[in-house]
Amino acid sequence: MEENPDESETSITISNSHLLEEVKKKCRLSARRSTKDCEKSSFRKSFRIDYRLEESVTKSQKGKDGRYINPWPTWKYPSLADVLKWMILEKDNSKIPRCKEELDKELPLVCPYFVENPEQAGMKKGGLRVTWLGHATVLVEMDEITFLTDPIFSMRASLSQFVGPKRFRNPPCTIGQLPKIDAVIISHTHYDHLDYNTVLSLNERFGGDLRWFVPMGLLEWMQNCGCENVIELDWWEENCIPEHDDITFVFTPSQHWCKRTPIDDNKVLWGSWSVLGPWNRFFFAGDTGYCSVFEEIGKRFGPFDLAAIPIGAYEPRYVDFSKFIRKRTFFYVNLFLRILFEYYLPVFGGITCRSYTDLRS
Ligand SMILES: [Zn+2]
């Protein structure tokens, strides 16, 4: 059939204008993206200043006994009487299923799949991928590096593997099955966040190639474990992995405490981590309750692309000894998350209840 030249021209015009619109759209998007990148990169340069010198940031503080303290009025240590009341009188509301079938339904265990060659698999250079490995352990693949948060692969969060809080779900993989890890970030020393056997195993597998970012006061403990590549930081201090100096690890504050033995309360600092890359920003809250410092973090380093935030452990209220996100404050926290984070990953669970909070809530 002979083509009508007018029709053909019209269709070309339509197609061209459509194409033009597409190109314009792409240009607008790319301009927006490069502005965002630019803002990010120009903002990045300011990370090199020492935030501890600023009046407006909350610096770490020690009490008269030389131990770290929480400098916010929102923090309150639970009394011994309250802890005893909780341990003896409170009934377990965690509703953790007792049988495997129910557990598989509520909290299925899925063996993670790690991509060996991200580029071959079509993954982009500046991508962000996280895999929750139970409790506060998250494997983060971000801007060409891979790091772990508070890794625990042991069956118990305890001094001994014979007593103490036990996992109700096994770790979804072994340390041997992990991909190459560039760094580990540690938020504080509680057994469910700093596990001796896991530190030894990771050090055995990756040795000095693995950089450990730890809170102030933990360097000696890490060195006693045989770890050589350890960076110990105070709140607002930063460092990086040598071959990836475009990604900044900042140790940011949180409201919590540290303890591993009856006599070492708060000798080590605790905190959160802000990991700032050229393409993505990741926030790891560690263990924390809500306090005003998160506004300071958001103001300096937000918005984050993804944040791993603790959930649960808010009951019973009179103990609330973890100072986690409470139910009644959850909406405020949500609001704050909306301001600071594009997405968030709720973490915790997998180790026997430390607070009697409904697992499914
Ligand atoms: Zn803790």
UniProtKB/TrEMBL annotation:
Domain Metallo-beta-lactamase: 147-318
GO molecular function annotations of the record: N-acylphosphatidylethanolamine-specific phospholipase D activity
Lineage top rank: taxon: Eukaryota
One Pfam family in the UniProt entry: Lactamase_B_2
SUPFAM superfamilies assigned: Metallo-hydrolase/oxidoreductase
GO biological process: N-acylethanolamine metabolic process; N-acylphosphatidylethanolamine metabolic process
Stored PANTHER family: N-ACYL-PHOSPHATIDYLETHANOLAMINE-HYDROLYZING PHOSPHOLIPASE D
UniProt-recorded name of the protein: N-acyl phosphatidylethanolamine phospholipase D
